[in-house]
C-alpha cells in the first residue's frame, strides 16, 4: 500500500476486552490508518489478513484497499 491509499478494515473480536476496545477506539484507528471503513464481520476477508491472540481476547483482522494507487 501507499500513503495515498485508503483502506477498509474488517474485524472479529472475541473474549476479554478486545471487542469493546475496538469499538471504543474506532475513530482513532480510522484516523491513524486512513481507513474509510472499520466494521465488524463474521469472517473478515481482505487483501491482508491476520489473527492476534492477546490476553484481552482474540482478534481477526482483514485489510482491503478501497481506493488509491495500485
Instruction: Tell me the strand percentage band.
Output: over 45%
Largest sheet: 4 strands, mixed
| Order of helix and strand elements from N to C terminus | EHHEEE
Counting helices, strands and paired strands, the structural category is: alpha+beta
Description of the molecule:
With 70 residues, the protein is α+β, with helices and mostly antiparallel strands. It is 21% helix and 47% strand. It has two helices and four strands; from the N terminus they run E-H-H-E-E-E. A four-stranded mixed beta sheet has the order 2-1-4-3. Strand 3 and strand 4 form a beta hairpin. The longest helix has 8 residues, at 26-33.
Task: Give a quick precis of the structure.
The chain has helices at residues 18-24, 26-33; strands spanning 6-14, 35-40, 48-54, 57-67.
Question: What are the key terms here?
Answer:
single chain; 70 residues; alpha+beta; 2 helices; 21% helix
Sequence-ordered SSE layout with sheet pairings:
Layout: E1 6-14, H1 18-24, H2 26-33, E2 35-40, E3 48-54, E4 57-67
Parallel strand pairs: 1-2
Antiparallel strand pairs: 1-4, 3-4
